Amino acid sequence: MEEVPREHTKYDAGVTRHFLTGEELTADELTELLDRADFLKRDRWASAQLSGRSVALVFEKPSTRTRISFEVGVHELGGHAVVLREGEMQLSRGESTRDTALVLSRFVHAIAVRTFADSLLEELAEHSSVPVINMLTDGHHPCQVLADLQTIRERFGKLEGLKLAYVGDGNNVANSLILLGAKAGLQVAVATPPELAPDLAVVERAGDRVHVTTDPAEAADGAHVLYTDVWVSMGDEAEAERLRSLLAPYQLNEALLELARPDAIVLHCLPAHVGEEITEGLLYGERSAVFDQAENRLHAQKALLELLLGPPSRSLPASG
Q1: Whole-model pTM?
Q2: Comparing C-alpha atoms, which of 269, 249, 224 is closest to residue 168?
Q3: Which residues are the active-site residues?
Q4: Which of 72, 147, 206, 300: CA 20 to 30 A from 184?
Q5: Average per-residue pLDDT in the chain?
C-alpha cells in the first residue's frame, strides 16, 4: 500500500469537525484515515502535525488502552495531552457542560471525552469551537472500531464484502461496529439476546449491510471475523447476575469458530474475562488478532487527530 503523505487530509479550517458516532466520516474519508493509520504504524514518528497544540483528555470512566493510546498518540504527533480524571474538573461540582465547552475551547485545540451519557458529549460538541472526540460513551465507541477496521484490513487486505459476526451484548461497541462496519463495506451480523439487542435506530441507519439475530451460530456461519465484548460493562455491575444469565449461550468459543471460515480471526476490544465471553484458547490462540487490535488504537487515533485538527497553524482556537 502506498505511503500517505501528511497533506492527504481534506481540511477546511473554517469548519469544526466532531467525531461522536463515526457517521461524521464519509466512506472515502474512512478509507483515507485507515491508509494514514497504516502509514503511521510503519513510522510512528513520521508526523508532528500536533506540534504546539494541546488536547484535553477527559475521563469520567476508568481506562487503560484509551488513556494510554491517546496520550501517547498526542505526544508522538508533537502535541501536549492534558489528562483530566473524574473529580478533577468543576463539572463534578455542578459547572454546566456548556460553560465547560466554552472554556476548554479557549485553552485547547481538541477535547476527547470518555463518559457515560451520549447527551453530555453532544452538548459539549454543540458549544465547542474545537473538535470533540468520543473516546467512549454508553451508546458508541467509534475510536475502538477504527482500530478494529485497521486490524481486519491488515489480515485480509480489504474490508468490502467481508463478514463480521459480533456475539454478545448489543452495547456501544456493537452499535459502532454496525455503523462504521457498514460504511466500510462489511456485512455485519449481530447475535444478541432480545433483551440486549443493539440500538434499533442504529441498525436502521446502517441499512441492509446489517443482520441482527438471536442465534450465535447463524451469525458465525461463514464469518471472516468473530468479535465479542465483556458481558458486564462499566456501570452495569448491579445487573451482573442477570447479564451473565442472558449471555451464557453467547460465549465466543471453539464451537463458534468451527462455523466460521478457515481463515477467520478473533477480535475482542478488551478487557477480557476468560471463561465468560471468550475462551482462553480463542483469546490467546493462533487465530487471535486481539493484541494487534489493541495496538492499532494508537495508530488509528493518531490518523483521526490529524484529520480533525488539520494542518498546523499558529492561530489559537476560536473563542467560544
Answers
A1: 0.93
A2: 249
A3: 114, 141, 144, 229, 269, 297
A4: 72
A5: 93
